[in-house]
Design a protein that fits this description.
Elements (H helix, E strand, L loop, with lengths): L14 E6 L8 E6 L19 H4 L1 H4 L5 E7 L15 H19 L7 E6 L2 H14 L10 H5 E7 L8 H15 L2 H6 L1 H9 L1 H12 L6 E7 L3 E3 L2 E3 L4 H4 L7 E5 L17 H43 L2 E3 L4 E7 L28 H4 L7 E7 L6
Parallel strand pairs: 2-3, 2-4, 4-5, 5-6, 6-9
Antiparallel strand pairs: 1-3, 7-8, 10-11, 11-12
Length: 385
């Protein structure tokens, strides 16, 4: 595998691999590719004909002005990884790992606020959806940094991802067809229980669809559907048809890629069907994202600061320090200020709210008050709550 300059780059089977980054300049956006069922972070995006790995060999030259960093993500995408165990939602496990990996990768590079654009094929789109749902729901000082993936996401390009899930039976059929395309024939024929397990899990997949619909207006979304049918045992069939892959929705872009389901994400050259539409979509998002995401981070920081201030005020207003005799000393902040750290990682891991607040012993209390605190002497029968 080579990048746009011809230099070979190894691609990790699991986790994130950076396949391109602009030389001598800070990237403006991260573009992350996520494969689908039985996919691979390299092969899913590589042409069967020319062996071109387009995220590294075609995309960078198209986005020189936008200065992207391009990454591919790999995970265990066999059939069992898309089905539930006795009590576990394995897609959620994939989503949690994806969020953790993206956060860690960007944290090391001090790029926690950099905009993110996702490109997902087939059921990989469901993993991305679930990851964004998970990141958006995160609360709590100790894990709030993982919310950065949700805040930083600007746009998503879905290639052949099944979205419409209102018809449970039809979902089962689509999932079976996807298996028939991406799995070796011997697996489909000899291990039908794996296909059946995926089909019976379609309610979990539908729930992801419904939850994501509540978040979708926040993102720029581009739906792509396959333009050519796939030969399934002598029958030509659209694996994920236009209604499912590109549902009509307000303020959402839709387009066709003139290829079948498995080849719609493989571009052998710049003239390949659909390449121009996909690249222009990514380029447009990459150009617009920095200003918008910067504003979202400003809003996010203000909201976090307000929450910290409110919690601090509540904490200190109820704090009472004992004193000698029948009197107690009550102190309250003249002003409570909380300013989140503003470095590029945008994390609040060092917040004092996560630590236990301790009252000072009577002998030390008066000596250690500073000018931000007002000292009141209150009798027992008029003690303030």
């Amino acid at each position: 595998m080579s990048n746009s300059s011809g230099q070979r780059i190894p691609v990790n089977r699991y986790g994130l691999t950076e396949v391109y980054s602009p030389a001598d300049v800070k990237p403006n956006v991260d573009v992350i590719f996520v494969h689908g069922l039985n996919g691979d972070p390299h092969n899913t995006w590589t042409s069967d004909v020319s062996k071109v790995f387009w995220p590294a060999q075609l995309l960078p030259s198209e986005l020189e002005e936008e200065k992207p960093r391009v990454l591919v993500y790999g995970y265990d995408a066999n059939v069992t990884s898309f089905t539930d165990g006795v009590s576990k939602d394995k897609i959620h496990n994939h989503a949690e790992t994806l969020v953790a990996d993206v956060y860690a990768n960007r944290k090391r590079r001090k790029a926690g606020e950099r905009p993110i654009i996702w490109v997902a094929h087939s059921l990989g789109g469901l993993v991305v959806k679930r990851a964004l749902i998970h990141s958006s729901e995160i609360r709590g000082v100790k894990i709030e940094h993982l919310r950065s993936v949700f805040v930083s996401t600007y746009g998503i390009l879905f290639l052949g991802t099944p979205h419409h899930g209102s018809d449970v039976a039809q979902w089962g059929n689509r999932l079976e067809w996807i298996c028939s395309v991406v799995l070796p024939k011997r697996v489909v024929d000899t291990q039908p229980q794996l296909v059946d397990a995926l089909k019976t899990n379609n309610e979990t997949l539908q729930n992801i669809d419904r939850q994501f619909a509540q978040l979708m207006t926040r993102f720029h979304v581009y739906f792509f559907h396959e333009g050519k049918p796939t030969n399934l045992k002598g029958t030509l069939r659209f694996i994920v048809d236009e209604t499912s892959a590109a549902p009509t929705a307000p303020d959402v872009e839709r387009a066709v890629i003139e290829a079948d389901h498995s080849r719609m994400c493989k571009f052998e050259n710049e003239s390949a069907p659909g390449f121009e539409r996909v690249v222009v979509g990514i380029a447009g998002y990459a150009e617009e994202a920095p200003a918008t995401i910067a504003q979202r981070w400003e809003t996010e920081k203000k909201e976090r600061s307000t929450a910290i201030q409110a919690e601090a005020a509540e904490l200190y207003s109820s704090m009472t320090l004992p004193s000698a005799g029948t009197h107690g000393l009550i102190f309250s902040p003249a002003s409570v200020k909380a300013t989140p750290q503003s470095d590029s990682s945008s994390n609040f891991e060092g917040s004092s709210l996560g630590r236990q607040q301790k009252a000072l012993p009577p002998a030390e209390s008066e000596a250690r008050f500073d000018e931000d605190w007002v000292l009141e002497d209150v009798t027992n029968d008029k003690r303030m709550a």
